[in-house]
């Protein structure tokens, strides 16, 4: 079953240095969807190990299975427009509407 449009939860504002968790979920897809987060239209990298992630100065953890995007300490650089895409290899992937977070 193709995924439906996911529900995204993105805070509209956050204080610098706080923990922020965004979530993305859809329930129709079978097999279960994987989730990809985007910031300003660019796919966010999944953190794997320490090497490349540290070089890219990645300050978040993205879980493609649960759809969560977790910032341990947000910075002004994390301000932007976020959306997520659900896909399970069946039908077309579905995106939620873009939401802006101001840090």
UniProtKB/TrEMBL annotation:
GO terms for cellular component: bicellular tight junction; cell surface; plasma membrane; protein complex involved in cell adhesion. InterPro entries: Ig-like_dom, Ig-like_dom_sf, Ig-like_fold, Ig_sub, Ig_sub2, JAM2. It is found in: Cell junction, Tight junction; Cell membrane. Keywords: Cell junction, Cell membrane, Disulfide bond, Immunoglobulin domain, Membrane, Signal, Tight junction, Transmembrane, Transmembrane helix. Gene3D superfamilies: Immunoglobulins. The keyword Transcription does not apply. SUPFAM superfamilies: Immunoglobulin (SSF48726). It is a single-pass type I membrane protein. Residues 3-103 form the Ig-like domain. GO terms for biological process: leukocyte cell-cell adhesion. Signal peptide: none annotated. Belongs to the immunoglobulin superfamily. This is JAM2 protein. It comes from Prunella himalayana. The gene is Jam2.
